Amino acid sequence: MNIKELIEKFASGGSPVEIINEADFSRELSCVYCCDLLSVVMGKAPADCAWVTVMGNLNSVAVSVLADISLIVIAENSPIDQNAIDKAREKEVNIIKTKLPIFDMATKIDFWLKK
Amino acid sequence: MNILELKYTIPGDDFTRAGEASSAIKRKLKQMGFPPDLIRNVSIATYEGEINSVIHANGGSVSVSIDDEAVTIVIEDTGKGIPDIEKAMQEGFSTAPDSVRSLGFGAGMGLPNMKKYTDEIHVESQVGKGTKVTMKCRMT
To answer: How big is the CA angle at B15 (ends B64 and A37), to the nearest 5 degrees?
Structure first.
């Protein structure tokens, strides 16, 4: 499933996500991954995953670029720094945001990816 | 014979620019058509090294050389050095300040990740003088 299709599932399922940066929503998603410690994310996040986190800072964007993460999903309606959004535009990193907690969002993504 | 050599400066105490060198290296390797796994390994190892230099040594330098057999990454600084390298290589051991932890770093995964994503790692350090980390990612 690609990012665009996933976003459509959330829209039709009654829990729409907010699009923070659309770089390439045709990118495929391999799986879902959750963690807020960036060093752990660097070490463990699978390539092309949807990464659910509350860390909306500049370094999250850098980690996504270097670890080949397809999509950053900011959960819990957590704030995203403006310089992180600017960097995401520059580096072409996909970011969406949800008010759902990390676990709920991750299980929903997992459900759609496995369907 | 080296195909390519790249050198970058890591600015000190500037988390907004940490990752510039690794992103530039990643872009270069992509242009040269290296396999995605190799590129990812080099990028992650270099970024961890960059972050370490920013946190612990007020910056430093990265040099990358590529030949037929491997990508070699050397990260060097003139910071405070590592008193116990063996301890620093353990997952979870960290001396990073709280300010860094609030950004999501300082989990004690830097050097362990660098080891995990490279085929060879060699750490030389002198307390009060600096640290030099040499890593190799082999082509096959």
So the answer is: 95
